Amino acid sequence: MIPEASDFWFLPLGGTGEIGMNMNLYGHDGQWLMVDCGITFAKPTEEEKALGLPASAPPVQMADPEFIASRRESLVALIITHAHEDHVGAVPYLWEILKCPIYTTRFTAEILTRKLQEVGLHRKVPIHVVDPEIRHQIGKFDVQWVPLTHSIPDAFALAIRTPVAKIFHTADWKLDPAPVIGNGYQAEHYQALGEEGMNAMICDSTTANVAGHSISEASLHDGLKSIIENAPGRVVVTCFGSNLARLKTLYDIAGECDRHFALLGRSMINMASAAKASQVWSQQSNLVDANYLCYLPKQTVLAVATGSQGEPRTALYRLSHDNFFDLALEPGDTVIFSSRAIPGNEEAIQELIDRLEAMQVTVVTQESTEQPIHASGHPAIDELKNMYRWVKPDMAIPVHGEPAHLRAHGKLAASVGVPSHQVGENGDLYYIAPYRGIRRNAVKTGRLGLVKRKLVPIED
Predict the structure, then answer these.
(1) How many CB atoms lie within 10 A of CB 60?
(2) Greatest distance between any 2 Cα atoms in the chain
(3) Residue 6's CB: how many other CB atoms inside 10 A?
(4) 3-state secondary structure at position 180
């Protein structure tokens, strides 16, 4: 399967028909360009859920790159759009298979370098840190980084141009006028693409079935502060470890409420360190090492912990089992879930909450308070409509979502006048030029699991 000079193709190997492990290919004139290379985490099967058992599959999973690995001489590069695990997390495990140069921006490169150091690859992988103000010619693809807002700094969309077609690949995004940390957005950037003419928009579908407009990160400050300043004991907030804007908001609230601020969980500490090193969030002077928490008066402690999805071995999971070395929760302490439940994790989260409440810890979730304490990083219906009106693509290709999200996204695109939309899944080949269409099941796809740092196929 070799794209000719007149062809422009899109081929998702992961992340279409599911949320997580994004891996996308664009093909033109004998070459392939990969966009993102992420992981997902195993979920229990229905039978395992019924028996109350954890997932038996390998916990870390990623898309099987066999199709492109067997053609790696034609793979010109891998572009990473942002530093979330479902977009960058598989690189340390798959690069030896792909052996291609990597292009990304400064903060994402900092995160990736740290991941590669853990597996002894940091001096072997060619990482090109791009200036997002400049268009780059990568093989036969003209690539432009387009700033947007998301729940992590340094997130970018891509405009990919060839002589036969031009596309806009959004990756993950929202329209946040006050993102706290990271890029703002300007409608003019997207309108300019629309005036130029985009043949397709490959777009995030995570919340395509959610009405209205996602709320801004900045709007969470007052609700979180109100709960924290009125809490009698220690406060532990759990959120996605990569959400640096949330960490910055909580850091500011700690200062306003005269509380010591600490981070619990290796991934969260690493993310904050990378943000400081890359000048994304350089002011972190009041961070307290977790080792000191047990010596501080409980009413002066505000900690942020990993484990919002109930994952084993995370900081909050261990706190709920009273086996976290640096801190113990007591009756009267408060745990705030500044997060949403990823589909499939509801039972694990409820079990975590039950354990905390059995310890007589007050638990606050978005459902239990009228104040906003979590903001999605993805576009709701009104944001999607705005983006389509600005970019005006000839075709919509919904990605990054389960089938229901993709179908809702396709209908939405049609409702705002997009001439064509194609709803598919991993392994489908989308034709963007010389004509629009889709070839179902064009490529066999699958998953690899990580077991003791080795990759093993996962059976369906």
Answers:
(1) 19
(2) 69
(3) 13
(4) coil
- Give the Cβ contact number of residue 113 at 10 Å: 17
The 8-class DSSP code of residue 182 comes to: S
What tokens were used for 248? 């910055």
Residue 356: what are its φ and ψ, rounded to 5°?
Answer: -65, -45
Distance (Å, whole) CA 234 – CA 293? 10
Give SS3 for 45. coil
CB atoms within 10 A of CB 71: 15
**Token duo for residue 145:** 């980084």
- Alpha-carbon Rg for the chain, nearest whole angstrom, is 22
3-class secondary structure, 143:
strand
Count other C-beta atoms under 10 Å from residue 459's C-beta. Answer: 8
Burial 211-247 (b: 16+ CB within 10 A, else e): eebbebbeebbebbbebbeebebbbbbbbbbbbbbbb
Tens-of-pLDDT digits for all 460 residues of the chain? Answer: 899 999 999 999 999 999 999 999 999 999 999 999 999 988 777 777 666 666 778 889 999 999 999 999 999 999 999 999 999 999 999 999 999 999 999 999 999 999 999 999 988 999 999 999 999 999 999 999 999 999 999 999 999 999 999 999 999 999 999 999 887 899 999 999 999 999 999 999 999 999 999 999 999 999 999 999 999 999 999 999 889 999 999 999 999 999 999 999 998 999 999 999 999 998 888 899 999 999 999 999 999 999 999 988 899 999 999 999 999 999 999 999 999 988 778 888 999 999 999 999 999 999 999 999 999 999 999 999 999 999 999 999 999 999 999 999 999 999 999 999 999 999 999 999 999 999 999 999 999 999 988 999 997 7
Phi then psi dihedrals of residue 79, to 5 deg: -105, 130
- The CA distance from 411 to 389, in Å, is 15
